[in-house]
Structures are given as structure tokens and as C-alpha cells.
Amino acid sequence: MRFLATVFLSLSAAVASAALTVYPAGPGVETNNDYSVRVRQDGGEWLPVATYPVKVDRTEGGKHNVEVASMAYFDFDGNVEVEVVNLGGATREARVRPLSYAIPFEMSGDTLRFSLDRPRNLSVEFNGDIFHNLHLFANPLDTNRPAEIGNKKKMRKRKDLVYFAPGIHHLDGDTMRIPSGTTVYIDGGARVVGQLIADGVHDVKFFGRGEVHPEGRGEGIYIKRSRNIEADGVIVTQIPVGESDSVSVNNVKSISSYGWGDGMNVFASNNVSYDGVFCRNSDDCSTVYATRKGFNGGCRNIEMKNSTLWADVAHAVMIGLHGNSEIGDTITNVAYRNIDILDHAEPQIDYMGCMAINNGDNIVVDGVTFDNIRVEDIRGGNLINMRVCYNKKYCTAPGRGIRNVLFKDVTYNGGNAELSIMTGYNEDRRIENVVFDNLVINGVKYFDDMPQKPKWYKTSDFARIFIGEHVDNVVFK
């Protein structure tokens, strides 16, 4: 550990101005010039923000086509003014998403300016181009930065610290296994090429502002059979959690571009929380699975809140499907709260759903909450997909049932969503007790006593939700 701390030690190149910090790109880290980004506070000096290439997925005809978008990040407290210049020129229009933030901006020619009064993970888009956009991560000030950074003498004494300074770092063998009690800090302007693994350990922390991802495809950080693990602020391709307990993932950004590039998987784990994360993925953004990929057991107490999900293909949220069909796992107490879903583009009917519970392998899913979910105009797929099913490609049995699901304050604005689906499997494998509380689609609230609904119509007919057989007690309030 002393070797690593010494090799990666150097003074951070971060530039701070009052409560504003920017991170110039470190030596060898690739940047791009699609955009010029600057920030300042209270009419102060403009500080340049490095922009980096980031690969995203444009799926067409079932093939993953890699496009190169842009990414930039900085830290601040209070208020900050942001300037983004589209260096491609010929700007006709722009937008800043999520749209629910309603961030006002001024545009003059190719220059866009807006102000922020709190941390935000944003997409800045010119001329409707979502594949060459700017992912702008306006972070809170980094309170996890080790005080010893910049002091060689003190750093040598930190046997429990692995520090990646600004610059490019290629891991030996493309992996690094992190021992218990270790803090890994990836500084702003750093890129770690490879995979950081917490396997069978406890009390490990992954902090910083830099990037971690293998060359090509794969998980940047992988958490396996571990407990008391924390990740905060870093940028990764994927960050799965398998057969672990007490895992906290905050303000982490996951962006992937390749097939099966799920963002934040949970496999057979308990007490996993996500807060303020951003996922733009080439497969499911967030999943909760039981037994899968060598991890065994069910899931309990999984929560994601205050986050943004962007599925270039597959689901924004996927629950169920995988488990041990011989035992019959249980997934319970799962919640998604205050979530913006920016896109969902899935042509395969079996894999549609911004919010999906597809239950197989004799799993019971009992107790799921979707609370304050805002879905923008997706490119393709459906809003809700709940099925007790038998997907023979991935399962060896149908699921045992889906119970006690709440959709509260869910809104969708757009015209591309196809028919939503809710269907059970048979008399013994049912969907039961589903409540829609304040479902609003394109400004219309759907509830069982809505005056424009004829009494012989089902509310679901108006909301464009197909409710099939073996589904009981669905209520629209």
C-alpha cells in the first residue's frame, strides 16, 4: 500500500476560487473540444473547465453504435454561473435537462449561459443532439478529500490510502483488489484504466472526482461479498453490487456504450442505497436481481433517490427476473424516490419499461415504491411493464408473484410511449395490490372516479395500461 501511495502522489492541479473548484485534466488524460466550458461565482473570474470525451450508445437495428459525447465537472457551493459554447457552431436551439429542473438560460449565438444554486447532474444539448451532448456534473464541494494530499511526508504514513493523482493510470493486470479499511481517492483530472475490486472485504471507500473504467468494456468498480462500502463522486462505466450488505453510492456517475452495459446492478444484496446518482447506460440503468452471476440470495432494503436515469436501450429500472428457481428468492422493500428518467429506447417488447418488474425464477417481489418519478418523452418502449413471466432465455421457471406496488406522483410527458402492460402468469402466480396515486400523463390525471371516464370503462383503458389476466386489486387514486 505504501508503494501505491508513493507512486500516485503529486500535488493536485485543482484550482479553487472561494467555494468553486475546477480540475484541469491531468497528464495523458484525453480531452476534446466540442464545447468550451467556463464557470464563475458572483461576477468573479471565469475559470475554464476541462471537457472529456465519453462514449454513449446509439442502438439501431439491434446493434450498438458508439458515439462520442462530452463530459465536464466542477465543484461549488452557493451560486455559480455557467457558460457553455458550442464549438460546432450553427446553433439553432438548446435545452438543459432534466426538464423538471426548469433551469432558465440565455443564448447568444453559440453561447449558452445559466446559473445554478445547488449541485446538479445535467445534460446540455444543442440542436436536439443527444448523442454528442455535454454531460455537465456540477458537484457539491468535496468533503471526502484526504487532508494529507499534497504533503508527501503525511501521505507516506497513510497505509490505508490509495491515491490516484491527476493523470492517466493503467492498473497492472487491469485490476486492483482493495483490502479492508482502505480509502481509494481518484482525484479530479485523473483517469484510472482498469477495474477496482472490493471482494470479501469491509469498510472500503471509493472517493474523488476522477474516472475509473477499463479499456473497452467492463465494470469500473465492482463490489462483491463485502460490507460497509461507500462510493462518492467518482465517474465509472458500471458499479455492480453482488451479495453485499450496507453499501452506499452517492453522486456517482455511470456512463456505458457497449452491449450489456448495465449501470448500477444489485445482485442478492441487502441495505443498498443510492443518492444523487446519474446513469446513462447501454442497458438497464438500475436493477434489483436475486441470485445471479454467482451471487446467491434475495434482496432487501434497496433505495435510490434524487437521481437521474437515461437508458439508451433497455430499462431505466428493472426488478426481478433472475433468482434461484429451486429455492425461490424474495425481493422486498425496494424504493425509487424523486427520479428523473430522461430516455428509454427499447424495440424488443420483452424488455420494455421505464419502470419494469419482470418476475421469473420462482421469485416473489413484495413491496416496491415508485415515488415522485418524472419521465420525459422517451424514444421508444413503455412507461410501466409488470409481468409474472417465464423468459426462457434467462430463467428456468416463472416467477411466484408481484405484490404491494405503489406508483405515487408519476408523470409522463410525451407521445412515444407504447401501451403499458400488467399481467400475471396463472392462478398461483399473480400480481396483487397495485396502487396508482396521482398518475399524470400529458397533464391528465387518471383516477377511478375521473369525470370524463364512462362507468363501463376501466381507468387503465384511459391511461393506456393493459391489465391482463391474474391481476387483482389495481386502484387509481
Structural summary, described in words:
The strands form 3 sheets. This protein has a 28-stranded mixed β-sheet that branches. The longest helix is centred in the N-terminal third of the chain and has 6 residues. It is mainly beta. The protein is globular. Helix content is 4%, strand content 52%. Strand 5 and strand 6 form a beta hairpin. The chain contains 3 helices and 40 strands.
Please describe the topology of this protein.
Layout: H1 2-7, E1 15-17, E2 20-22, E3 35-40, E4 47-49, E5 51-60, E6 63-76, E7 80-86, E8 94-97, E9 105-108, E10 111-116, E11 120-126, E12 134-140, H2 152-157, E13 161-164, E14 167-177, E15 183-186, E16 190-199, E17 202-208, E18 211-213, E19 221-224, E20 227-232, E21 235-236, E22 241-242, E23 245-250, E24 253-255, E25 264-267, E26 270-275, E27 278-281, E28 286-289, E29 299-311, E30 317-320, E31 330-344, E32 355-359, E33 364-375, E34 384-388, E35 401-412, E36 420-423, E37 430-441, E38 444-446, H3 459-463, E39 465-467, E40 471-476
Parallel strand pairs: 6-12, 13-15, 14-16, 15-17, 16-18, 16-19, 17-20, 18-21, 19-22, 20-23, 21-24, 22-25, 23-26, 24-27, 25-28, 26-29, 27-29, 28-30, 29-31, 30-32, 31-33, 32-34, 33-35, 34-36, 35-37, 36-39, 37-40
Antiparallel strand pairs: 1-2, 2-6, 3-4, 3-7, 5-6, 7-10, 8-11, 9-10, 11-12, 37-38
Key descriptive features of the protein:
477 residues, 40 strands, seven-stranded mixed beta sheet, 52% strand, 28-stranded mixed beta sheet, mainly beta
